[in-house]
Design goal:
9% strand; 13 helices; alpha/beta; 5-stranded mixed β-sheet
């Protein structure tokens, strides 16, 4: 009987472990972009909006709807204009020649000119020296391109790849069909490398600016392989700049490369541990990530699901208060006061998740980690400049993910630097309202003339 009792006890323990494992695996099969950090593109079953019942109205703007029209180009920017007079009355057919004009209805038609590449030929003559007998050939004029393509074409090629995420072969096809320029894949790569080299000092200055910013949103994502190295793309985003770094690793050293040795500002981030090394920083955990954790708990059922559902409702109330604060409907003292009961409920339910006997392992670990970093959850409530989400960094890195999916990462060291530099220029130019094609053209021309790149300010 003792042996049977022991056997039953062992089987019960095995059953408990098996059931826990089943719950964990079922939770993994339910993971999507709503309850985990997986991207939306990986969702197997995407929720579709239910069909809308027909209203019987015609499609388009309804009667009384205030219409919107295209803004007209200012008169000083119009390239050509033509006066058109009516030849006869539309009512009776009477000729209107010689009648005075009344008022004009202005219509503008925009067209692109037929693109014809401008090819400049340099005939580099040689001459014989009557004194020493040596033959000397003329060199290219100062400021001339070193290769076969000028600064603006080089800039266009680099942006087709680095801004519009075209492959090298697609870039070659666009150059032929849109610009009438025949260019090899190798020359496309050379143009990209030339633009990357020119941009290096400017992007490094942007990176230093991000390191010294009072608040930074940081994130990282995989970016394929470069040789045998697994590469990770890191981003630090501020209100006026985005700095990207493509590095072989996802640890503390790479985080320091992005943010400096001891970043002292407000750091918006997820719960990735390497960010915790910045002891001087004020950390703000992303509540967007945490809501996905709560959604995962909610879908687990049982006590875990109950606590997850209540935490998500508490999160809804917290975000509602934050949006009121952003709209100026409440001030900072009111935000702090109204958040106190929500914070208390968060702590109470996280403790239940951490200590509950029937709570699934993953939810228990999440609750334990959030309680360990409790103060980092609420920096945005007390500190000016902080935000409850890390959406700024996630939005910045999403474009890079699209590039990665089309290019399968970078294949060389120069390719890695091109990726991080062009992404830095594109993101920062957008925030500063800079015409990147114009700036990159001028930067390449300045380099040919031995001058520094122009200022990267609007």
């Amino acid at each position: 009987m003792e042996e049977l009792a022991k056997r039953v006890k062992d089987l019960e323990a095995l059953l408990v472990a098996a059931l826990a494992r089943i719950v964990e695996l079922e939770g993994q099969t339910r993971q999507d972009s709503n309850n985990s950090s997986k991207p939306p593109s990986s969702d197997m079953k995407r929720k579709r909006k239910p069909p809308v019942e027909p209203t019987g109205r015609k499609a388009g703007g309804q009667p009384g709807h205030e219409g919107r029209t295209r803004d007209q180009v200012p008169t000083e920017d119009v390239d050509a204009s033509e006066d058109v007079d009516p030849s006869a009355c539309e009512n009776c057919g009477e000729a209107l020649d010689g009648q005075p004009r009344l008022d004009a209805c202005i219509r503008q038609v925009t067209e692109t000119p037929e693109f014809q590449a401008f090819v400049q030929e340099f005939r580099l003559w040689s001459k014989w020296c009557p004194k020493c007998g040596r033959t000397t050939r003329a060199g290219m004029p100062a400021g001339s391109p070193k290769g076969a393509f000028g600064p603006r074409l080089q800039a266009r090629i680099a942006l087709l790849s680095g801004r519009f995420r075209l492959t090298r072969r697609e870039t070659r096809a666009v150059a032929k069909s849109m610009f009438g320029v025949t260019i090899s894949v190798g020359s496309v790569q050379a143009c990209c490398e030339a633009a990357s080299a020119v941009a290096a000092p400017t992007t490094e200055a942007i990176h230093q600016e991000v390191k010294q910013s009072p608040e930074v949103n940081a994130d990282e994502t995989g970016f394929g392989r470069c040789g045998k190295k697994r590469m990770w793309l890191w981003v630090g985003s501020t209100k006026k700049a985005e700095a990207f770094r493509l590095l072989p690793g996802r640890g503390k050293a790479q985080a320091r490369d992005l943010l400096g040795e001891d970043f002292p500002g407000i750091l918006h981030r997820d719960r990735w541990k390497p960010y915790e090394q910045f002891k001087k920083a004020l950390h703000q955990l992303c509540h967007g990530h945490i809501r996905r954790d709560f959604q995962s708990m909610l879908e687990s059922g049982g006590e875990t699901g109950t606590q997850g559902a209540m935490l998500k409702l508490a999160s809804d109330r917290a975000f509602h208060l934050w949006h009121q604060f952003e709209r100026g409907e409440i001030d900072r003292p009111a935000l702090i006061r109204l958040m106190k009961p929500i914070r208390a409920e968060f702590r109470q339910r996280l403790i239940r998740l951490r200590d509950g006997a029937t709570i699934i392992k993953k939810a228990r670990g999440t609750a334990k980690d959030l309680l360990r970093q409790w103060d980092n959850l609420w920096t945005y409530v007390d500190m000016e400049g902080a935000n409850p989400t890390n959406n700024e960094a996630e939005s910045a890195i999403r474009k890079a993910v699209l590039w990665r999916k089309g290019s399968f990462g970078a294949q060389s060291e120069s390719g890695c630097r091109f990726v991080e530099r062009l992404l830095t220029l594109v993101g920062t130019a957008r925030k500063r309202s800079i015409d990147l094609l114009d700036w990159l053209t001028r930067a390449i021309q300045a380099d040919l003339e031995g001058q520094p790149a122009p200022s990267f300010e609007a």
